[in-house]
Write a structure and sequence with these properties.
348 residues, 11 strands, 10 helices, two-stranded antiparallel sheet
Length: 348
């Protein structure tokens, strides 16, 4: 641990600043390729569905209008959610978690792991953290020089620590985390509905073309409709499994990282340590306003740093300020607002 506190990287001989800058911009451009691929597929699907199916193939005007209205509603919600997931404002870790220069100097000059652990424990004693490393010490990031808040992790792609990190998704070129997890869930849900709608409305014409009844469709239009059906089917299968898995994670209040490695508390690992009941788990991500649950606006509860935990972990938590407590969704309220005097803690 002592050697890991320092992160000195020596560039190879002849490696100039210009080359480093060029590599950085090339890497940034490369990371946008999956997003451009998704945008290209959606753009093509718009042409295939609106132009080739609705305008050139469907003969009924009423059916055209119904299909076009429903299609554009799903497309707008899908694109809106995708945009918010990509360009969400991923806020940095609060300053109170960062080691000041004096503490950092002590940490780097400590000769033993026990001394380093003591320094981190003393610094973190007033921080609202309940999770630990596998060895029981405070979770510390030597790259960002900070104590990690609960559920925060360092993303090697973004080169920063991220609050409630779920995973880094190349398809959105962003970390899926506290600040955009609701948008990511809506993106998956609307993308799945979009694919199912395209697939179900193209299916009758796909069967007709398969039987040789081409109607008013030209050869190029037939191929676009057939390909649209197969592409929608392929993505629906993939999105269905992914969306179902993340619905399971939301219901159990876990991230993808926590599903693979349970968070460690003072009493040991507990994969359900942050679970407060399926409904409360859902509201922690989607908020308390039902009318905004399906709209890609930020309504998630809390600040991304502090979370309610299960009853058995209550006595292991930090000593919270005497003038604040958590409500059922992990937000803080003063005693004067609650009208009672129990100490601040986490709900079961």
């Amino acid at each position: 641990m002592a050697s890991s506190m320092q992160n000195n990287r020596v560039s190879p001989p002849g490696y100039c600043v210009c080359c480093r800058t060029c590599n950085m911009w090339c890497w940034r451009a490369f990371k946008w390729l999956p997003v451009l691929l998704i945008v290209s597929i959606v753009t093509w699907s718009y042409y295939a569905y609106v132009i080739q199916l609705c305008i050139f193939t469907i003969e009924s005007t009423v059916q055209q209008c119904i299909y076009l209205v429903l299609y554009h509603i799903l497309l707008i919600m899908f694109a809106w959610s995708y945009w918010r997931t990509i360009f969400a404002d991923i806020k940095p870790i609060p300053e109170k978690y960062k080691l000041p220069e004096t503490e950092l100097e002590k940490l780097l000059s400590a000769e033993t792991e026990d001394a380093q652990r003591t320094i981190l424990e003393n610094f973190a004693k007033d921080l609202p953290i309940v999770t630990r490393t596998m060895s029981g010490s405070v979770r510390y990031c030597n790259r960002c020089v900070l104590v990690k808040p609960d559920r925060a992790h360092h993303c090697s792609i973004c080169s920063r620590c991220v609050l409630k990190m779920d995973h880094h998704c190349p398809w959105v070129n962003n970390c899926v985390c506290f600040h955009n997890y609701k948008f990511f869930m809506l993106f998956l849900g609307y993308a799945l509905l979009y694919c199912l709608f395209v697939m179900s409305t193209c299916l009758p014409y796909f069967i007709r073309f398969w039987k040789g009844d081409f109607g008013m469709s030209g050869s190029a239009g037939r191929y676009h409709i057939v390909f649209a059906f197969f592409v929608a089917l392929m993505f629906a299968i993939s999105l269905g499994s992914l969306f179902g898995y993340h619905c399971y994670l939301v219901a159990h209040n876990r991230t993808t990282l926590e599903a693979f490695r349970a968070p460690m508390f003072r009493g040991g690992a507990d994969k359900n340590g942050f679970s407060i009941g399926a409904y409360n788990n859902f509201k922690e991500v989607f908020g308390n306003s039902p009318n905004l649950w399906i709209v890609p606006v930020f309504t998630s509860a809390g600040d991304g740093c502090e979370y309610p935990v299960r009853r058995e972990h209550r006595l292991q938590t930090f000593s919270a300020p005497h003038d604040a407590r958590y409500d059922s969704m992990g937000t803080t309220r003063s005693r004067s607002e609650n009208g009672d005097s129990p100490p601040a803690s986490h709900i079961p």
